[in-house]
């Protein structure tokens, strides 16, 4: 017999519920319980609907980590619309591009980004809502207070939930379309890998426009009914103090944050005993930084992933981290992995480096309005090309060797910059190092190393080369070395290799410099 559509139902206990009085979000003097969050989300969803947001529309958010980010995310999802968090560290031109590319019909922004919004320009056919509105903008609190009933929209797992713009280190960024199912399965993978509790107190310090900030720790903690504290601005001393003051149990971060904290003058006297898990990802971390955390008894785990995988692909385990301090661990439970060679023929996942392929319910289906690039990102149907070269040890632990596009072919030999960089930063005097390829008449391509020396340390090229030659084959040692005060990085700490390649090509033309 055919049953009618009964809708969502009205029985209050139709779902298992988190204790509504438990704290969901906390920030400065503001605390929001799960009941309070549900009310705020319903009101804001009603306001967005009243202002014309419909299922499938895009609602952009521009601002630092804040409770309003979560309210807007969940309210947008309740409307059946798509949330678009934007990087507030970008230029007005870049923000304008993302607003136009996503076709956002509504923009919510915090007070600190008012000037940026003004320079980027408003939405011609949309609304702008602000926590501290300028002329022509709507007031966030007033709109939520005047809201009517929240929309009753049926959301399917395959429906788009989020547009996350990739870092754009190689050109204009493109938006990965993550569905409700992608985010849900990533959360399930995290919970299968980690012991996340409803009593956890997590800091959200990685930016929420980045997959690490949202997908690791944050959403899994909220799923379990724990408390999340968004941090507007990263300051290593403030974070260290907050861990001890609030009994913080977990957070996710990018490696530069971990390094800044363990270098801070308060590091040795900070009580870290409440921490049960610290995850990091987004880029490699120097082994000395990982050891600094592990030596304090902190359960530090590297997670490997990418925006397109929502983001988790693999993660270290507590049992093996001491023996593999900077390894990418093992695949998540609902993640399939494979590998291909340069000609896209299947390769075994073993000691020989090969490009990693990934598939699973957490892997996205494509980029926003980029059908050709989306199609090119997959092989053999649903296998996503990560673009990362990995090596898997006999014990099953993976090591990310490098990006395929960053590999240098010198005299017919493959040189992976990440391998050279990892050796370089073992030298106490080296603060950071980046290696890129530069054209060479004799070898076709050679390496150029950009080296940042630690403050107060002294290092010359001869000593630097001697260190590399002690640990690497001679063909892997960069032909050119350039000492610099800093490396160009994007908002999430990744090195902008495009700029370094251009500088290297200009400076070391055919090895004449």
UniProtKB/TrEMBL annotation:
Keyword Ligase: yes
CDD domains: FACL_FadD13-like
Keywords: Ligase
Domain AMP-binding enzyme C-terminal as annotated: residue spans: 419-494
Gene Ontology BP annotations: fatty acid metabolic process
Single annotated GO MF: medium-chain fatty acid-CoA ligase activity
UniProt keyword Nucleus present: no
Superkingdom of origin organism: Bacteria
Domain AMP-dependent synthetase/ligase: 14-368
Family membership noted in the UniProt record: Belongs to the ATP-dependent AMP-binding enzyme family.
Protein name from the UniProt record: Fatty-acyl-CoA synthase
Organism: Amycolatopsis balhimycina DSM 5908
């Amino acid at each position: 017999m055919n049953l009618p559509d009964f809708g969502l139902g009205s029985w209050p206990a139709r779902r298992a519920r988190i204790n509504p009085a438990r704290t969901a979000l906390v920030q400065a003097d503001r605390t929001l319980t799960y009941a309070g969050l549900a009310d705020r989300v319903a009101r804001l969803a009603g306001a967005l609907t009243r202002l014309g947001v419909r299922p499938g529309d895009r609602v952009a958010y521009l601002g630092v980590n804040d409770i309003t980010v979560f309210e807007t995310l969940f309210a947008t999802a309740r409307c059946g619309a798509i949330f678009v968090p934007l990087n507030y560290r970008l230029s007005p031109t870049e923000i304008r591009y993302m607003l136009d590319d996503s076709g956002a019909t509504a923009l919510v922004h915090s007070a600190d980004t008012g000037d940026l919004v003004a320079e980027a320009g408003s939405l011609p056919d949309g609304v702008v809502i602000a926590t501290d509105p300028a002329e022509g903008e709507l007031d966030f609190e007033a709109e939520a207070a005047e809201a009517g009933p929240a929309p009753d929209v049926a959301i399917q797992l395959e429906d788009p939930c989020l547009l996350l713009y990739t870092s754009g280190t190689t050109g204009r960024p493109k938006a990965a379309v993550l569905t409700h199912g992608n985010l849900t399965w990533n959360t399930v993978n995290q919970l299968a890998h980690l012991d996340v509790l409803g009593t956890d107190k997590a800091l959200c310090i990685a930016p929420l426009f980045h997959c690490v900030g949202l997908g690791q720790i944050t959403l899994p903690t909220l799923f379990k009914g724990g408390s999340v504290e968004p941090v507007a601005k990263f300051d290593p001393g403030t974070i260290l103090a907050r861990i001890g003051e609030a009994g913080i149990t977990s957070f996710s971060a990018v490696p530069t944050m971990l390094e800044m904290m363990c270098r801070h003058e308060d590091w040795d006297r900070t009580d870290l005993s409440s921490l049960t898990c610290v995850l990091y990802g987004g880029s490699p971390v120097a082994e000395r930084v990982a050891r600094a955390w592990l030596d304090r008894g902190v359960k530090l785990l590297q997670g490997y992933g990418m925006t397109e995988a929502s983001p988790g692909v693999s993660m270290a385990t507590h049992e093996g981290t001491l023996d593999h301090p900077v390894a990418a661990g093992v695949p998540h439970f609902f993640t399939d992995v494979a590998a291909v060679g340069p000609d896209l023929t299947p390769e075994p996942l073993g000691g020989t480096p090969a490009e990693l392929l990934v598939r699973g319910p957490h892997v996205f289906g494509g980029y926003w309005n980029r059908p050709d690039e989306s199609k090119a990102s997959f092989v053999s149907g649903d296998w996503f090309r990560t673009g990362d070269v990995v090596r898997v040890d006999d014990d099953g632990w993976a090591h990310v060797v490098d990006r395929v596009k960053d590999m240098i072919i010198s005299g017919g030999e493959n040189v992976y910059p990440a391998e050279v960089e990892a050796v370089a930063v073992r030298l106490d005097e080296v603060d950071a190092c980046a290696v890129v390829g530069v054209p060479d008449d004799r070898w076709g391509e050679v390496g150029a190393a950009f080296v940042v020396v630690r403050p107060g340390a002294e290092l010359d090229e001869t000593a630097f080369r001697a260190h590399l030659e002690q640990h690497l084959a001679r063909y892997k040692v960069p032909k050119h070395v350039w000492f610099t005060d800093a490396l160009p990085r994007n908002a999430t700490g990744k090195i902008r290799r495009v700029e370094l390649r251009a500088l290297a090509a200009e400076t070391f033309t055919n090895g004449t410099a």
